[in-house]
Design a protein that fits this description.
Order of helices and strands: EEEEEEH
Oligomer: single chain
CATH class of one domain: Mainly Beta
Structural class: mainly beta
Distance between the termini: 67 Å
Radius of gyration: 24 Å
Number of strands: 6
Number of helices: 1
Shape: rod-shaped
Low-confidence stretches: 6-11
Helix content: under 10%
Strand order of the largest sheet: 1-2-3-6-5-4
CATH architecture of one domain: Beta Barrel
CATH topology of one domain: Thrombin, subunit H
C-alpha cells in the first residue's frame, strides 16, 4: 500500500448526536450521526427501524428534517432526506437564539502565578 491519498472527496470526522422519531411515534431516540451530507445521513444507535420507515431527525442548528430509511445494517441505518439541507450548519458550534442576552465575563486571573520579583528589590547575600 502506498502512502498516496486516492479519495476524490475528503472525509470529515463527525461527532454529532441527533434525536430521531419514527413514523409519528412520540418517543425520540438519541443516535450518533456518523456521516452527514446535504441529502442524507448515516446514524448509529439502539433504534429499531426498517427500510421505508418515515422518520424525523432533529439536527443541531438545522431543526427537524423529514426523511425515509433507505437501508439498515445491524445498529446502523441510512436516511434519505426529503429536502436537501445545509449540512455545514450542523457542523458549526451551537448557535444561540438571536434574541438571547449574551453574558461576557471578565477573564479570571485567579489561576495565574504571581509576577517574579524585580531584581533591584532582592537582598544580596
Amino acid at each position: 500500500m502506498t502512502g498516496v491519498e486516492t479519495r476524490s472527496v475528503t472525509r470529515d470526522s463527525l461527532f454529532l448526536l441527533a434525536d430521531v422519531r419514527v413514523e409519528q411515534n412520540a418517543e425520540a431516540y438519541r443516535v450518533r450521526v456518523r456521516n452527514l451530507s446535504d441529502g442524507g445521513m448515516m446514524g448509529e444507535g439502539q433504534l429499531r427501524v426498517q427500510r421505508g420507515h418515515r422518520v424525523s431527525v432533529e439536527l443541531r442548528n438545522i431543526g427537524a428534517v423529514g426523511g425515509t430509511v433507505a437501508w439498515v445494517q445491524d445498529n446502523r441505518f441510512g436516511v434519505a432526506f426529503d429536502e436537501e439541507i445545509d449540512s455545514q450548519k450542523a457542523r458549526r458550534p451551537l448557535q444561540a437564539p438571536e434574541d438571547s442576552v449574551t453574558f461576557m465575563a471578565a477573564p479570571s486571573r485567579a489561576h495565574r502565578a504571581p509576577r517574579p520579583p524585580e531584581p533591584s528589590t532582592l537582598r544580596k547575600i
